[in-house]
Amino acid sequence: MIGLYFFGYNIGRIFGPEYLLRLFLAGAMSGSVFYLVHHAFLAKCHQHLEVLLENIPTMFQSSTTAESCFGAAIKVHWNLVLMRV
Known about the structure:
By secondary structure, the protein is mostly helical. About 85% of the residues lie in helices and about 0% in strands. It has helices at about 1-15, 15-60, 70-85.
């Protein structure tokens, strides 16, 4: 659609106004379909994410490890840096 905004005049002049109208309508319809599919996908993922966030405290309630994962992340990053040298 941005391309039609910038190049619509030239496309209409070269291919004709009917072609430009068809191209514009096809872009609008396909954009609408992708928008609906995207939001349906996000709604499904949102429900799963809420369930996961609600279950995290019960998943790790019996864990005896008190340290954070930040130290392990730093070690992995440092090893990756050393491997590039």
